[in-house]
Amino acid sequence: MEEESCVSLWTREQEKAFENALATHPEDCSDRWEKIAADVPGKTIEEVKDHYELLVQDINGIESGRIPLPCYPSSSEGGDLAIDGGNGKKGGNPHGDPGHTGKASKSDQERRKGIAWTEDEHR
């Protein structure tokens, strides 16, 4: 049997539990990682910490411009597609086109920012 990779596979349910646990347990909590691992079925404290580090690296890459934002269809026709194209993989090129960089034009980026809600809309 091959050596286990450093990156374990995560189900959608585990990802969701991880996201919820991150939101529930603040950074200043002394036993944060133990609590998060307890909330994510089948994952150890070390796996949860590693997964968090990968998430931080992804965010830093996106914010620095090293990882391009994915291009989503502008119409609602593709609205039911999964963000990762259903392949369960992070990163990479979801279009399978080696010449496609995934960089959005400035107008696309402006459009994606959206308009802030008014106080009435928040009610």
UniProtKB/TrEMBL annotation:
Query: Keyword set for this entry?
Result: Nucleus, Transcription, Transcription regulation
What is the protein name for this chain?
Uncharacterized protein
Q: Name one Pfam family in it.
A: Myb_DNA-binding
Where in the cell? Nucleus
Source species, please? Ensete ventricosum
Renumbered to this chain, region (Disordered) spans: 70-123
Q: What is its main location?
A: nucleus
Q: Which PANTHER family match?
A: DUPLICATED HOMEODOMAIN-LIKE SUPERFAMILY PROTEIN-RELATED, MYB FAMILY TRANSCRIPTION FACTOR
